[in-house]
Amino acid sequence: MGLAYLKLNDHDTAKIEISAARAVFQQLGATTDIHKVDSLIPKHESDKTHGLTPRELEVLQILATGKTNKEIANELFISERTVDRHVSNILGKFGVDSRAAATAYAYEHDMI
């Protein structure tokens, strides 16, 4: 199923199907199949996002301009609390403790 979704350019669904197959192969101890499945997931896609969701990427791009959570919320038409959650997730995924460090990380990794 994952291969079919890849051919249809539905990468999100393909990733879900491929991940499910990988879990089954892992339970079976089928290491050769695990390596085959791992090669199907486009590495460049996950490398570019560094584990961030599309919305977290949007928040990061605006955050990097120096805007406050309130300004980000207004721009994206979401609540300030939601922005705060996204910022916390970004900091956690990057392993940094400040907005400035997250911005530096994003620039260093060509994310913005």
UniProtKB/TrEMBL annotation:
PROSITE patterns: HTH_LUXR_1 (PS00622), HTH_LUXR_2 (PS50043). Signal peptide: none annotated. Keywords: DNA-binding, Transcription, Transcription regulation. SUPFAM superfamilies: C-terminal effector domain of the bipartite response regulators (SSF46894). The keyword rRNA-binding does not apply. It holds the Pfam family GerE. InterPro entries: Sig_transdc_resp-reg_C-effctor, Tscrpt_reg_LuxR_C, WH-like_DNA-bd_sf. CDD domains: LuxR_C_like. Residues 45-110 form the HTH luxR-type domain. The keyword RNA-binding does not apply. This is Response regulator transcription factor. It comes from Fodinibius salsisoli.
